[in-house]
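Q: How would the structure tokens look for this protein?
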Amino acid sequence: MIVRPDALARVGHSPVVRRLYDHPRIAALARTAVNRVVPEHPVQVRVAQGPLRGVHLCLNLRREKAFWLGVYETWVQGLMCEILKDGGRVWDVGANFGYHTLLMCKLCDPRNVLAIEPDPSNQRRLGENLRLNHFEETSIVTSAVGAAPARAFLRRHPSDPGQSVIGALGEIEVEITTLDLLLNMHAPPDLIKVDVEGAENLMMRGAARLLRDVRPAWILEVHGERGEEAVQLLRSHGYDLRGFGKGHEFAAHFPVGGPKHVFAEPCR
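A: Here is the predicted structure in token form.
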């Protein structure tokens, strides 16, 4: 039996079902049960709740339920809604298939949103999701970002093909640009959201002019020592930083292996 996605979504975002996520074992059993009744192939759905409620997405519901239910990185969604309540210009670095990009387009003029995604498969999904929601005016950059212009390879994560890392070896050769070079072609951003799977330090090394002259706010997903280097670069350029997400409190000094997300804004 296959259950219609819209019908299952109404159940999935009910308060009772959401509380299942407080109990990992029960949640795992629930996910297994849901996987038996949702389609195996990608389908077009509407996000069930949250700031993206009603937005169209093409998803594989067996492994992308959080996007469908609107509960993916709710702390990032909430902070973007706060920062961009009056609009603005924003760059999505590591846009993947465009979940956060679409929220940016809802909060800002889509022409003021720049999505940066090097993986060709993700680019196709990103373009499709923008078209489904009539945000075609959003620009897409198909390069990775790093410390200097170059070429490198993407290696996809074995359990999640939507995630990839940059290295000397991999499946797909891509061009690397820098955030500073993108300033030559695109208007300066007020906010930059970053999810580059461990390449945060390299990206920051190629953003000296952004850090010195433009001074946007940053929402940064961090990974270990490379993330710590990026955090220290922000701090050395006069940024205030705080960790956030998942309801945790964090110390003022950001530790290696610490919070997954950091919000940075220029010191007043």
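Residues 74-266 form a domain with the Rossmann fold fold (CATH 3.40.50.150).

The longest strand covers residues 150-157.

Upvote if useful.
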